[in-house]
UniProtKB/TrEMBL annotation:
Keywords: Membrane, Transmembrane, Transmembrane helix. The keyword Membrane applies. This is Uncharacterized protein. The chain crosses the membrane at residues 21-38, 66-84.
Length: 140
């Protein structure tokens, strides 16, 4: 049985996020591209009489959206996996060091710690207030 380390799992999730998910999102947003050039008959364009775009029936419109989203999603997926991921993998360590130096120079870890402590205090105060209110209601 093969055991997976945290690094292997995070690498897999990173690969899925950069390739598949980005391609999926862009493919889904590409379906709006069809509505720029085509439209269906409806009441807002007086069933095609006042249409400024090409009129297609609803089945053709949905098929065009579906096909276009698959094609553009696949193209974006391939671009991400072949080009952009290689550049990110090559340049990430350099930018990571610059980002860490910037964080240390601006005392970001200390500020984040202070914000976290403040949020914990507020959460505890809120929980105590809710608990007291429940006890008061319960005692009535």
């Amino acid at each position: 049985m093969k055991f997976f380390s945290r690094k292997v799992i995070l690498r897999y999730l990173y690969d899925q996020l950069t390739g598949n998910f980005a391609g999926f999102l862009i493919g889904m947003s590409a379906s709006g591209l069809v509505s720029r050039f085509f439209e269906t008959r409806s009441i807002r364009n007086l069933w095609g009489l006042t249409a400024k775009k090409t009129i297609v029936d609803k089945a053709t419109f949905s098929n065009l959206e579906w096909i276009l989203s698959i094609i553009i999603g696949f193209i974006v997926f391939e671009i991400f996996t072949k080009v952009i991921k290689e550049r990110i993998d090559k340049n990430f360590p350099r930018y990571k060091i610059k980002f860490m130096r910037w964080m240390i120079a601006n005392a970001i870890p200390e500020k984040a710690s202070a914000i976290g402590l403040n949020l914990n205090r507020q959460r505890i105060a809120f929980f105590a207030a809710v608990q007291q209110a429940v006890v008061r209601v319960k005692n009535k």
